[in-house]
Amino acid sequence: MSSTYQLKRSALFLSLVLLSSQYVLAGDNLTDLNIQTLDATENSKQNHSVEQSPSEQQLPTIVVSADQDQTLSAGQISKTSQVGMLGDKQDLDIPFSITSYTSKYIADQQATSVADALRSEPSVRSVFSKGGIGEYFNIRGLYTQSHELAWNGLFGLLPHNRVPTEFLERVDVFKGTSALLNGMSIGGAVGGVINVVPKRATSEDITRLTTTYKSDSTFGAHIDVGRRFGQEDQFGVRVNALKSLGDKALDGQEENRYLGSAAFDYKGEKFRASLDLYDINEKLDGGQPLMVSFATSVVPKAPDSKLNHQPGSYSHTKTRGAIAHVEYDFAPEWTAFASAGTKRQNGVGVIANNALGNAAQPNGDYMAVSRMNANNTNVDAGELGVRGKFNTGAIKHNVVISANSLDQDTHMGLVMGTPWASNIYRPTRPALIASPPTYTPKTLDTTLTSFAFADTLSILDDKYQLTLGVRHQNVKSQSYSILTGLPSSPYYDESAVTPMVGFVVKPWDNTLSLYANYIEGLSQGGTIIDPSNPLVAEKTFKPYKSKQYEIGTKWDMGKFKNTLSIYQITKNDLAQDANRNYSESEQRNRGIEWTTAGEIVKDIRLLGGVSYLEAEWKKTAGGLMDGNDVKGIPHWQSNLGLEWDVQPVEGLTLTANTTYTGSLYANDTNTQKIPDWFVLDLGGRYATNIAKHNVVFRGGVDNVFDKKHWAGGWNGYVGVGGDPRSYKLSMQIDF
């Protein structure tokens, strides 16, 4: 890279920072009590020193909120999570396994997407490479796509490709089946739900600027401003603005990312309301990482993740959303609520999440594919319901009745390029990348509606809790050919009823909780296509019901919490044989999970966990694949991180994060085995006070040993794993 180019890049970054500072000082924006309070705790040790300098004595008093007691691991994990229609609940009162990562954790990890924010979650794996256009997840051995993430419990309102984190207060990971709690998602994911909670203005003003750097030379600036107004601070506004651009770790790839969001809320005595608006633009130019299938049982070694396998490809997406929510207390202990949201997204670029390749040989040779698409997706979603409490004798009831709907239509055009020969270690640049399509017919029209009822019964000051519920779900869907725009399958109109039972026992107040659940999930039935005519559906199945049985325990010692769960999930699905033909079979996942968070000894914290999973095929055609591992699902996964507050240096914290993924199969016939892999990340942060401003410096090295590995699989393809060794820095200033 030339010195002139570097000078231009540096000037651009400096200009961006200066513009951001002017924007902040103009007072145009927002707040966050949790972030401010929790970041302040890293500096609070300065206020407890025996002797202070005159300048230190002049610093404003830091008030530590009681909300700090509702977090673990230095404010990185929340003890409160959203449980779908049941609303926000304390962790020990939830008969499921949930982990909630706060904005403090997101900032400390320098996470820019939800996948980054889940790096401590042992039950979740991101399927694709970081340099790809999207983020798909594997939760308890079952897949979910980025557009299946929930926004305060509502599906379909987030970007299809990648969800940024800069405007999020919390990311909740619900592990397991959840049809009653959230309804059916568009893709019918049943392994778990990732729910995001947007930032809101809180009682403390915030004016925060964060500047960032990531390898290769990506620079960014993020502004976060919050204020409350009115005699009783009943009005709030929170605004986030982000600009990030530059060269990424993948050779030749460039990022240009923009986020703007505004959150308005009103908190009255009986009436509460909020309105969230966001505008997200993401451009990835100059190439994509590799995703490939294998021709034989010999799986070649993973290539360098820096290699660019499709230099001329690109992906441009733009997403806008608006979500409103109101609540009204129409009687003591009774609240009516309603939510409504809309999303509009359009994009153009590569259709595959990565540069796509077929039939890689042991020496690395494969046939590369160039496919381009243009698409737009429109989603409207809403929920209406009532929550209330009443007693029948000694039994307390917490009742929820809700109805929700989701309508999505998708338009997509596709252009196929001419395949060319390439090699995973020595990529060949294509002579011609496929051109974007000019024709974008409707490809999918889906309407989901449901009605649900749940009652949590409790006795003896909530020591014993029983939750019963049922949901009636209707699915209407019509698929259309991407080539002709004509219907490609029969009109789908099916209904199903899914129940749920959950039990919680707290034998020692709020220290220990024992829980169990039975819950069903729901996904649209699969379609078997006539191999001789891809436009003709041979058979479409009724909605698949998945069933989960789970028992577990949660132990909360105040500063340290452990969760242990054992579960089984069964789900009908289509298994793929050696001839790439599909047949309806049953997937059975049995697993055990341990997650932990908090201070194990003074100044040392542990965060993460370990999971073991057996995902097997049952009831396959002729029993030929019964007992085989489901492709793309490892047995062992581990994410464990340590943080050390270095006492000799006040405000300094050193971190180490480890990620281990066991071996897995790339195909359902279990002839193509992907080796296990281990990655170490190191980092640190330093919180101080400069010129009466709280400042936090953060830095890290990801993939310290530059481990080359294959990532998880998707539909018979396997992606190159993660980023190469990369560096990241940030500086956060509170004004």
UniProtKB/TrEMBL annotation:
<dbReference type="Pfam" id="PF00593">
    <property type="entry name" value="TonB_dep_Rec_b-barrel"/>
</dbReference>
<dbReference type="Pfam" id="PF07715">
    <property type="entry name" value="Plug"/>
</dbReference>
<keyword id="KW-0812">Transmembrane</keyword>
<feature type="signal peptide">
    <location>
        <begin position="1"/>
        <end position="26"/>
    </location>
</feature>
<feature type="domain" description="TonB-dependent receptor-like beta-barrel">
    <location>
        <begin position="308"/>
        <end position="704"/>
    </location>
</feature>
<dbReference type="InterPro" id="IPR037066">
    <property type="entry name" value="Plug_dom_sf"/>
</dbReference>
<keyword id="KW-0675">Receptor</keyword>
<dbReference type="InterPro" id="IPR039426">
    <property type="entry name" value="TonB-dep_rcpt-like"/>
</dbReference>
<dbReference type="GO" id="GO:0015891">
    <property type="term" value="P:siderophore transport"/>
</dbReference>
<keyword id="KW-0798">TonB box</keyword>
<dbReference type="GO" id="GO:0015344">
    <property type="term" value="F:siderophore uptake transmembrane transporter activity"/>
</dbReference>
<dbReference type="InterPro" id="IPR012910">
    <property type="entry name" value="Plug_dom"/>
</dbReference>
<protein>
    <submittedName>
        <fullName>Ligand-gated channel protein</fullName>
    </submittedName>
</protein>
<keyword id="KW-1134">Transmembrane beta strand</keyword>
<keyword id="KW-0732">Signal</keyword>
<dbReference type="InterPro" id="IPR000531">
    <property type="entry name" value="Beta-barrel_TonB"/>
</dbReference>
<keyword id="KW-0998">Cell outer membrane</keyword>
<dbReference type="GO" id="GO:0009279">
    <property type="term" value="C:cell outer membrane"/>
</dbReference>
<dbReference type="GO" id="GO:0038023">
    <property type="term" value="F:signaling receptor activity"/>
</dbReference>
<keyword id="KW-0472">Membrane</keyword>
<comment type="similarity">
    <text>Belongs to the TonB-dependent receptor family.</text>
</comment>
<feature type="domain" description="TonB-dependent receptor plug">
    <location>
        <begin position="92"/>
        <end position="188"/>
    </location>
</feature>
<keyword id="KW-0813">Transport</keyword>
<dbReference type="InterPro" id="IPR010105">
    <property type="entry name" value="TonB_sidphr_rcpt"/>
</dbReference>
<dbReference type="InterPro" id="IPR036942">
    <property type="entry name" value="Beta-barrel_TonB_sf"/>
</dbReference>
